[in-house]
Amino acid sequence: MRILVLGGDGYLGWPTAMHFSQRGDEVCIVDNFAKRQWEMEEGIEPLWSVSTLHRRVKTWENVSGKKIEVKIGDLCNHRFVYAVFEAFKPDAIVHYGEQPSAPYSMQSREAAVYTQHNNVVGNLNVMFAMQKFVPNAHLIKLGTMGEYGTPNIDIEEGWLEIEHKGRKDRVLYPKKPGSYYHLSKVHDSANLEFACRIWGMKATDLNQGVVYGVDTDQTVLHDDLRTSFHYDDIFGTVLNRFLSQAAVGRNLTVYGNGTQTRGFLNIKDTIACVALAADNSPEQGEFRIFNQFTEQFSVLDLATKVQASALRAGLDCKVDYLANPRVEQENHYYNAVHTGLVELGLQPTLLTDDVVDAMLANVCAQKDAVDTDVFIPRVKWKQS
Ligand SMILES: NC(=O)c1ccc[n+]([C@@H]2O[C@H](COP(=O)([O-])OP(=O)(O)OC[C@H]3O[C@@H](n4cnc5c(N)ncnc54)[C@H](O)[C@@H]3O)[C@@H](O)[C@H]2O)c1
């Protein structure tokens, strides 16, 4: 297949590009290095430095004998997007190229507007480029489980069958997102459903849980091929933050009472899910939605796992309960269906003690680089 990986310089995009390249697909990466710019603006760095995209691609060619094409530009520039689609003519597009952080989007009016403009307009440009140049191609779009929020009923896989005043219909599951970032993804989903229904586009929306891990079959082949690890308050995820805190002997910072529950998955499973989606295309005109996660954990579950791992490594760490900077339900029902990808053949990689221990060892090896100033959340959902 000819696979376009949008956001291919990012945490998930780079390992995905190598995966498809390794198995013999023609891969082209698109990125405008916005993530590297946001990191500079916020004064944060991934735990280990990430090679330039040009170096990564060169090293990949040396290691694998395979070429990955690179196009540098902004998805919000439709002329650039059209030129890429016209030249590359992808069979499938994996769209990771968005601003991915809830705290980033909640910093200010500017950040909220930027996030929604970047994400919604970029996605619209991709949809229009597909319609113009490759109307039979398959868009695999990354959304998030955070779009659903924490409703007091089971979360279905994208669609809800409803009966109202004696009549039945199938509607997009009503969403209660928790940030302007999550809202941008809800808007993307609505635009995609429309394009599938009206134009006959085919798309898979992957409502992904929080991803952990950095090792894939390809990232471990060379230091230049590693992907990023963020543990800061803006781009860092909770498990990465706890691991970094444990490594440097700081207390684990739990927001609120820690009973907030979410879906999680290993980066290996992100790549497996995207590949399964690519290899099992929906019908033309179908808007297919999967909930892409493998396990549900509360924040406290994760803290307990990291504490146990730290103990096994001879480290001691305690939990600090911080006032929750987010506005979110802490005690809530959470039961999300996630069977679609398993039915396609996903074999989950679970968050076992061995996996946590390996992640902690990885972080401990870099502990001198940990910046403890970025542990404390700077962004509040509501000024009070
Ligand atoms: N990492 C997770 O845990 C997670 C969970 C759920 C969903 N997602 C979604 O998966 C996707 C990838 O996430 P990630 O963690 O790899 O993020 P990331 O920030 O590391 O990667 C996104 C990449 O897209 C690029 N990009 C952003 N806007 C662009 C634009 N206008 N034009 C060109 N390139 C642009 C960035 O430079 C970056 O390299 C995002 O859409 C994110 O919302 C991620």
UniProtKB/TrEMBL annotation:
Belongs to the NAD(P)-dependent epimerase/dehydratase family. Residues 3-290 form the NAD-dependent epimerase/dehydratase domain. Pathway: Bacterial outer membrane biogenesis; LPS O-antigen biosynthesis. This is NAD-dependent dehydratase. It comes from Thalassospira lohafexi. It holds the Pfam family Epimerase.
